[in-house]
Structures are given as structure tokens and as C-alpha cells.
Amino acid sequence: MEVAIIDYNAGNIYSVIHALQRLGIKPMLTNNAERIAKADKVIFPGQGEASNAMKYLCAHGLDNVIRNLKQPILGICIGQQLMCRHSEEGDVDCLGIFDVPVLRFQPQRHEDKVPHMGWNELRFTHSDGLRMKGVIGRSEGATLAVQEELIPEGLFQGFKGGEYVYFVHSYYVPTCSWTIATTDYIQPYSAALHRDNFYATQFHPEKSGSVGERILRNFLEL
Amino acid sequence: MLAKRIIPCLDVKDGQTVKGTNFVNLRQAGDPVELGRAYSLQGADELVFLDITASHEGRKTFSDMVERVAATLSIPFTVGGGINELSDVDRMLSAGADKVSINSAALRRPELIDEITRHYGSQVCVVAIDARQEENGEWQCYINGGRIPVGRKLTDWAYEAQERGAGEILFTSMNHDGVKTGFANEALSQLAERLSIPIIASGGAGRMEHFRDAFRLGHADAALAASVFHFGEIGIPELKKYLRKEGISVRT
Asked: Which residue from A152, B62, B151, B231 has the least number of CB within 10 angstroms?
């Protein structure tokens, strides 16, 4: 299987390469449009700053390459954020694959540290009150809560909820119609997104131990 | 819930792990890559590798070790020791480290923190502080492995490091290090009050309750220890089971 890792000068590429090698894959690191388009799977990883990353992608024509991919692509961390409509980081328009904005965490208490860094749990339920589909129930007190079960499949095949994964980020994607997993930090937000062949995680599967390995293996098996 | 992190620390000299008591009397404790892998399988949330080698050849050995760790481990790890300028940071990150820890170099030239965070982001920059509580009750910072006082107070320096962009503070109490009577919870709590970035408690772990207290009383985000893990006095699985029972959120 040919796995392309999009090379756009973002940090932390090595850990993705190593993680794939541990799964028996020799990925190619490339910014070549043709090679990316021909790969069986594409990974769009990274750490970095959104507006600079977008500048690089546009300058190298990679913005359209990514939008037009037909094979499964997995955005990781800043990769996920760049696949959204707009980011507050550097006030920049992004790829718009997921029509949702990227916002900066607003601490509510002294204990709410930004960046959100460390291991946190995946949830496969929405309880944000934004989505009006699904089961509507009444929680304790007067607040109307919306709870929608998300069925783990594809990327999260075999997951039950409560699995810990590793996060490092200051900006987040609110829950939306493409949310396939949430995490609660300051408020529940999108830990992962999915639309058609586009997958994205806010956390780093390549740094998330055996849980992360399972997610990468699930992605390779899509 | 964001989990409290348990971090084994491996002091590395000439490719082997060592750990001292009160910064002297080093004892051998194994191959760092194998030890790192074992900790990862046991449930360590992160690892710290500190290079305590002085020689140039030793530095190269350390970079090679970092590369082997990165290829083997699927959890985040920090490297420190001998990081004095941006090129050292670049070498460590290129070898596959997730974060670098800087100590004396940052106190000598605080702008290093700004440079690292500007180039690589706050998340890679851990500022390690060795401090001792003096007889007057004040916590003073030391450099060169705890040998030289620099005349700066712990909380003031930690705050400056944060304002310059540090992503985390790794605070080692020299009074507690190697003594195994618990972490410096009062000082930790004061730091937590003052800072808005994560704090890693270090120095003093001897029993499982000490970790609980660092989180509960010291409000630390992570706790680091070496010898209690290396010599099997505390197993990470039993430690996490204990903490969970005590109502502290840890990764399963």
C-alpha cells in the first residue's frame, strides 16, 4: 500500500513516519501533487501555525490537491484545523472541507490551561445542545440536553468511548454535523471529523500508544 | 477529563541510564530505549530523557539514542541536558523528540525561551527549574545541576518563563530530591496559583501517596520520578490503580 504524507514544512512529521513504520508501512513524504493524488492513503499531519501553513499549501498548489482527493485522507491536529472553513489562528480562510470554524479555547477557570496538553478521553456522544437531531431528553434541572449516540465505525471501529488519546492544541473545532468523536475540555468539542473520504483528528494518533496505533490501523484498512 | 500524567525520568550518561541521590552517587539502571519501551507498555504517559554526559562524543551517542527512542515509542517524550542554543533544539527535534527541556541555559539567557517558542511553538519548550528552599523559607533557583545559586526566586523565574512562552514548567525541589518523603507540595501549589501553564512535579517520590498529594495538594498536572520506578519500588500499573481509587483522573 502506498501511503503519502503531505510535506508542507509542518513539525512533528517524524513521529507519523515512525508510527507507520511500526505498522509495517514505508510512507513517502512528498509535496508532489501527482504522487499525492496517486497514493492509496494520504496523511496530512503537523504541528504549526494555521496562517503560515495555509500560505505554504496555496503557494505549492496543495490546497486544491487536498480538496480534490478521492482516496481516504487523514488530517492530524493542525491538519484537521486546516481542513475546516476558517481559523481564528492568524484569521485565515482554510480548505473548507468541513464547513465549521476553528476557534481559540477561552479558559473559564484558572485551572483551564491553554494549550490543552496531555491525555484526554474520546466520547462517542454529543451533548452540546447544538445538534437538534437524535434523542432529545431532559437532564437534571431545567436544561434541555441533546444526546446523540455516535456509532464508532471506520476510524473508531472497535471503540467504546473512554479511550485516552494525546492532545496538544490551543484552537479547537466545535461539535458539528461531521463530528464522529468528542472530547471534553472547557467544553465538549470535535476530537474527530468525517465527511466522505475526509477524516481528521485533533489528537495525535501517532503519539497515543496502542489506542493511537489502532486508529492508524483502522485508517489504513478503510 | 484531562488525565494527570505519570512521567518516569531517565538520566542518561554514555548511553546508559543512571540516577543519583541528591544529585550525587550515580547508580546504573539499564538501557534507556529498553527501559523506555517497558515504561510505555506499563502505562507511563510520557518520558523524560536527561543527558548528563559532558563530552562531545557522549552528545552524539545521546542523539542516536533519541532516534532509537522515537522509532520505538508511541508516547510523547522530552529530552534535556546540554541544550544551550536553538541548534541543539533543532538536533533533538529532528532526532524525533517531542519536547526539549532547558534549565541552566534559560537562566543564563532567558531569550532562548522566546527563540524556541517562536521557531517551534510553546508546546516543545519545557523549562526545568532546580530550586532549593533556603533557611529563610524562600525558594531560590540553582543552575549547573544544583551547584550554583543564581539569586532568582522560583515563582518569579517560573512566571517570566511562562511569559516568554514556555509550554510547561518542570520544577525539581532540591530539598526533596532523592529523599523519598514526598513532593514539595506547598511550593507546587504556589506555582499553580501563579501560573497558567502545566506544572510537572519532580523530586521526592517515595510512596504512592506522594503522587496523590502532588496532584491533590500541589495541584500539579504531572508527576515525575526516577528511582522508585527504575528499582521497581512502585509499579506504574499499581500506581495508576491507586490514584484512580483516590479519585484522581489518570489514563487507563
From this structure: B151
